[in-house]
Design brief:
The structure holds 2 protein chains of 2 kinds.
Chain A (H helix, E strand, L loop, with lengths): L1 H19 L5 E2 L14 E2 L4 E3 L9 H14 L4 E4 L6 H7 L6 E4 L6 H9 L4 E5 L6 H14 L2 E5 L7 E13 L4 E14 L7 E6 L9 E2 L28
Parallel strand pairs in A: 3-8, 4-5, 4-6, 6-7
Antiparallel strand pairs in A: 1-2, 8-9, 9-10, 10-11
Helix pairs in contact in A: 4-5
Chain B lengths: L2 E6 L3 H10 L7 E5 L2 E5 L1 H5 L8 H7 L4 E4 L2 H16 L5 E5 L2 E5 L1 H7 L2 H16 L4 E6 L1 H10 L8 H6 L9 H9 L5 H6 L2 H8 L1 H10 L18 E9 L2 H21 L2 E12 L4 E7 L6 H17 L16 E13 L13 H17 L5 E5 L9 E5 L25 E12 L20 E4 L5 E14 L8 E10 L4 E7 L2 E7 L2
Parallel strand pairs in B: 2-4
Antiparallel strand pairs in B: 1-6, 1-7, 2-3, 5-6, 8-11, 9-10, 9-11, 12-13, 14-15, 14-19, 15-16, 16-17, 17-18, 18-19
Classes of the chains: A alpha/beta, B alpha+beta.
């Protein structure tokens, strides 16, 4: 009887711990992207912008989806505002839980009100920026996100974000002349920002990697760019990403 | 002894089919279950159709027979109206099965001045309200009253054992027992009741012992009376029309508290809440809000405010329509709870898993729905299909998440992963040229006329194609005119790092999706 009690209380303790722990301040991101962000994840209350200035190398939408993936898998709620063309299949492929993903494809002219309302309740809010946004509106939304502990991900032109991620270049692999298919893309991403992110960083990742839906870091050393490297599986990569300066 | 009134609708299933499905019960009609006749109309009975006949035999006796499948739900629905009609003149009806109900005879008999008068009044009421003919029998106990109802008799008080004694043993409604008893020479209920109770229990078991008590007219079971569903709507009418949203929200707060109180007293929670506002000039705005978990008064008041807010600011619009704005103040507010659950089913998880975060998210999303209309916040469901746009169904937030097509049977011709990150709702027109500058075309036999080298999207500058694959044909729904889609798809990568999904159909090229 005593033994059973002990086992029972151990099971209970394992249940209690996650509940009594203080709320984690940083939402996880896929291992390939940890090197890019100052806290190795999305810090609650911060603004992580994804720049989409035209003409730009493509890859922004995949980057946004990859940022959400791990947090969504861990149980966070996400919302995407103003992206009517969002590829939901791609979102599901990266690992976003679709039942916790809300889409507001057409927020209308009053999109800031919609974003402000979502910041109140959703953990990660992605919003496409139609044109430019005035500095006062931007700082008001950022302040609201900071106060509510929500991660705001503006996608477009946005001044004053904590971190601004940018796609430097992207190359698709797998497609030949009349044969093959798109398999994976090598993306070079850069990050710059304020405070802890002041030092510019740049990394290379497979996004999407192989198998599809993974984001795998590319180690810069020993891989000539001409040679196609073997796909790096997520589960094998444990060592921290080397950040080129 | 408890005097019981038994209400019986002859040929209940046939009548139900007439009420619900509009099958005329005056003609020969039979309701069949598992290939056997369950009930038939008088006209069919006159032609020799009986209960228990096979379909073919019934049809051979009466070739004009209309055959209907048995549907218990239909019977219940039809009988519900009959019960409501009875309840309007007498309280407390127990529904025995669809088509029969029992009620205590004492109350109506005293009110209407006699059992016969009461029975007449009820039959009349049912005939008036739902055009159904029914018969009433009155006796001591439900069992005897049920038998009396078949012939429409009123058995005098204390006369029940004598009335039952002449009834055939089959009235017990227990085929195996009556079959055995008949072979033992027990032919009437009176014969059965004459047997010693102890011997019946020892020889035939408990159920037979119960049947023995019934046969002797000792039916002491009291009625399990149906409880009419509680009235839960709350309505408030305002003499001075409410002109401002905050005034309406304040009024809604009081209303919400009343609703919450009422639900709480019944131990219920609602998963859907209808809010209905009527303006002074008679316009109505009704919207249903969905919610997991019990709504607090504050949450209800919030929803009223959001709804009115969206209404007044004109952001709420019917899909494709003009904004709906009220032109006068609100004179009536009504809250209609729906989708009831017992409150106990909605307890939050002990360790808070389903709870807080989801509630917060739901609140925020409902708020946006209040601003933009319920169709503006969507959630996606993955189903089956061959193109990235086919596989996704977008449903308004809070609606049931059902895929458009099942994912299960494999979909040959589906695009291989990775999926494109941008799927254009309106594909862009494009043109593809080969090295000589000749437009590339795809023949019916999927022959590509040249190597795609340059791509022009709309009026943009030409882009160089560095890699391409295809054509991957799909020919969908060719059997349905208007839905048929026949396309050849290509993946191309461009020199600037973009990759696109193109489709060629009928000599036209479209950009369907971008691997962004």
């Amino acid at each position: 009887m005593a033994g059973r009690m002990a086992v029972g209380s151990a099971a209970l303790a394992s249940l209690v711990r996650p509940a009594s722990q203080s709320e984690p301040d940083v939402l996880p991101v896929p291992p390939g992207l940890t090197g890019l962000l100052p806290h190795r994840g999305l810090r609650r209350g911060s603004t992580v912008a994804v720049a989409a200035d035209r003409p730009a190398p493509s890859g922004g939408t995949s980057l946004v989806l990859a940022l959400l993936a791990e947090a969504s898998r861990a149980g966070s709620w996400c919302a995407v505002v103003g992206v009517p063309a969002l590829g939901v299949v791609a979102a599901a492929e990266v690992g976003i839980a679709l039942d916790r993903l809300a889409l507001v494809p057409h927020p209308g002219p009053d999109w800031t009100t919609v974003v402000a309302a979502l910041i109140d309740g959703v953990d990660v809010v992605v919003t496409a920026i139609p044109g430019t946004v005035s500095a006062s509106v931007a700082s008001r939304l950022a302040a609201r996100a900071r106060q509510r502990g929500c991660v705001l991900v503006p996608y477009g032109r946005w001044e004053g974000a904590d971190v601004t991620l940018r796609v430097v270049r992207g190359v698709w692999h797998g497609l030949g002349q009349g044969r093959g298919r798109l398999r994976r893309r090598e993306l070079v991403l850069s990050a710059r920002g304020r405070g802890a992110a002041a030092r510019p960083r740049q990394i290379r990742v497979w996004l999407p990697g192989e198998p599809p839906g993974t984001v795998a870091p590319i180690d810069d050393i020993g891989i000539p760019t001409s040679e196609v490297p073997r796909p790096v599986s997520l589960t094998l990569v444990r060592k921290p990403v080397r950040i080129p300066t | 002894m408890n005097r019981t009134m038994f209400l019986w609708c002859p040929d209940g299933p046939v009548i139900a089919a007439e009420i619900i499905d509009g099958v005329p019960a005056t003609g020969p009609v039979a309701v069949l279950h598992a290939n056997r006749v369950v009930a038939c109309s008088p006209a069919a009975r006159a032609e020799g159709v009986r209960r228990g006949l096979r379909r073919r035999e019934a049809q051979s006796r009466c070739p004009r027979l209309t055959v209907i499948d048995h549907d218990p739900a239909r019977d219940v629905r039809a009988f519900e109206a009959v019960v409501a009609a009875v309840e309007s003149v007498a309280a407390g009806v127990e529904v025995i099965r669809p088509g029969s109900g029992a009620l205590a005879a004492r109350g109506p008999a005293r009110y209407f001045g006699g059992e016969e008068q009461a029975a007449e009044r009820i039959v009349e009421q049912v005939a008036q309200d739902c055009d159904v003919e029914c018969q009433i029998g009155i006796a001591d106990g439900v069992f005897a009253a049920g038998i009396a109802a078949r012939t429409g008799r009123i058995v005098p008080p204390g006369g029940t054992p004598r009335f039952l004694a002449d009834q055939p043993i089959e009235s017990l409604g227990r085929p195996r027992l009556t079959d055995l008893l008949r072979r033992l020479g027990v032919r009437t209920l009176g014969d059965f009741a004459a047997l010693p109770a102890g011997d019946v229990l020892a020889r035939f078991g408990f159920d037979a012992a119960l049947a023995h008590r019934l046969a002797a007219g000792r039916d002491h079971r009291s009625l399990a009376v149906r409880r009419p569903p509680p009235e839960l709507d709350v309505t408030e009418t305002y003499d001075d029309p409410l002109e401002r949203v905050d005034a309406a929200a304040f009024a809604a707060r009081a209303l919400a508290e009343r609703l919450h109180d009422r639900l709480f007293r019944h131990g219920l929670a609602c998963t859907r809440l209808g809010i209905e506002a009527v303006t002074a000039d008679g316009r109505e705005l009704h919207r249903v809000w969905r919610h997991d978990g019990s709504l607090t008064p504050v949450a209800i008041a919030d929803r009223v405010r959001w709804q009115l807010d969206g209404w007044l600011s004109g952001t709420y619009r019917r899909p494709g329509g003009a904004p709906i704005r009220p032109t006068a103040g609100i004179v009536r507010l009504r809250l209609i709870p729906d989708g009831m659950l017992a409150l106990a089913d909605l307890q939050p998880g002990l360790w808070g898993e389903p709870g807080e975060e989801r509630d917060r998210a739901h609140r925020a999303l409902s708020r946006v729905q209040g601003l933009l209309g319920p169709e503006a916040v969507l959630t996606a469901v993955l189903g089956g299909g061959r193109s990235p746009d086919d596989r996704v169904r977008l449903v308004p937030w809070g609606d049931e998440r059902l895929p458009a097509r099942p994912a299960e049977p494999p979909w040959p011709g589906r695009l291989p992963p990775p999926a494109p990150a941008l799927v254009l709702p309106d594909p862009l027109a494009a043109a593809v040229y080969d090295a000589a500058g000749v437009p590339v075309s795809v023949s019916a036999r999927l022959q590509v006329s040249g190597t795609p080298t340059r791509l022009v999207i709309g009026s943009a500058d030409p882009a160089e194609i560095t890699g391409w694959a295809g054509p991957w044909p799909i020919d969908e729904r060719w059997w349905a005119a208007g839905e048929a889609r026949r396309r050849a798809r290509f993946q191309v990568s461009l020199a600037d790092g973009r990759a696109l999904l193109l489709s060629a159909s009928g000599g036209r090229w479209l950009v369907e999706a971008i691997y962004d």
